[in-house]
Amino acid sequence: MTAGPRPEFNARLRERLTQSPPGEDVPERPPAGPRHSRRRSRVGLFPQVLSVALVTAMVVSGMWTYRSMPGDTFYPLKRAAERTLFHLSSDAAERADRSFGYAETRALEVKELLGSGEREDEREEVIGETLQAMEDTTRSAVTSLRQIRRRDSARAKELKRFVQKQRTQIAGMIPKMGAENQRKAHVYLNYIEGLASPE
To answer: What are 87-146's pLDDT values in tens digits?
Structure first.
């Protein structure tokens, strides 16, 4: 008698034939979980956060520099920026305008220093340095004006306005100064008296 294969054998053979050959089954990559997604988003946001932080720091430091007073940490940067803008001026007229503006800024700084609560000896020293810087800046402006061959009436009026404003500001602050700074202020006032109609 010829015996055929058992049904169990046929079932196992059919199951093996329908399966994929060994080595071809490549497990699918599991989808990225929320942890991997958060890590990628953090890496992408870091340059943006860094850029915003740098811009904010630059703006804040610029504001501190602009508002700094003599004796402050950022004040040398303020003066350096003024010197840079002065040397970048296109002509003598622009240099004169910048110098007159800086002289007015020094006068405002003296006014602020007189109202500050610093020790009198330290305050008087800083005020003296600021008065000297104001005079040097005004002399620089006058030197630039003398390099201009032709001065129109508008520029003469602007110079007259500067002299009147400086005279009023400085004269009102003299009584609050010490003896040495009063002397410096009077020297400055005597100097600007002849600037309204420079030769």
So the answer is: 999 888 899 999 999 999 999 999 999 988 777 888 999 999 999 999 999 999 988 888
Q: What is the 3-state secondary structure (H, E, C) of 41-108?
A: HHHHHHHHHHHHHHHHHHHHHHHHHHHCCCCCCCHHHHHHHHHHHHHCCCCHHHHHHHHHHHHHHHHH
Q: What are phi and psi of 19, to 5 degrees?
A: -80, 155
| Nearest-10 crossing angle of helices 92-114, 75-87 | 160
What would the two tokens of residue 79 be? 């003066």
Distance in Å from the first CA to the final CA of the chain:
141
Question: Residue 146 is which amino acid?
Answer: R
H or E element at residue 191:
helix 179-192
Per-residue pLDDT of 23-38, as tens digits, reads: 555 455 555 555 655 6
